[in-house]
Amino acid sequence: MGIFLIAVLLGLIPAAIAKGKGRSFGAWWLYGAALFIVALPHSLLMRSSPSGIERQHLADGMKKCQHCAEFIKQDANVCRYCGRDVKLAA
Ligand SMILES: [Zn+2]
Questions:
Q1: Of 5, 33, 45, 55, which cross-links 11 as Cys (Cβ 3.0–4.6 Å)?
Q2: pLDDT digits (tens, 9 = 90+) for 21-48
Q3: Measured in angstroms, how far is the CA atom of residue 57 from the centroid of ligand 1?
C-alpha cells in the first residue's frame, strides 16, 4: 500500500511536466506511476506538442491573434504581443 501510494504521488511529477507540454495528464500519470524512472526523464526531454498546447489554450478560453498568431485572452481588444487591434469576434 505504501509503495503504491508513493508511485501514485511520484507519477504526478511527469504528468504535470507532460501537461505543461500539451500532453495528456491522465496517460502520463499512469505512465509515471508505473515507470517513474523512465517517465520522468522522458517527460523532461520530450518536445512540447504544438497542437496539444494550442488545444489547451483554446480550452482555457484563449484566442489566436490574427496578426502574429500568439494566444491572447478572449476579451482582449489589443494583442499583448504585437500591440495591434484584434477583432472582437474570433
Ligand atoms: Zn498579435
A1: 33
A2: 889 999 999 999 999 999 999 999 998 8
A3: 15
Contact (Cβ atoms closer than 8 angstroms) between residue 15 and residue 44: no
CA gap 49, 52 in Å, rounded:
5
Instruction: Give 47 Cα–ligand 1 centroid separation in angstroms.
Output: 24
Distance 17 CA to ligand 1 centre (A): 27
pTM exceeds 0.70 for this model: no
Q: Kindly give the distance from the C-alpha atom of residue 13 to the centroid of ligand 1, in angstroms, as a whole number.
A: 33
Report domain extents, the chain. Answer: 2-47, 60-90
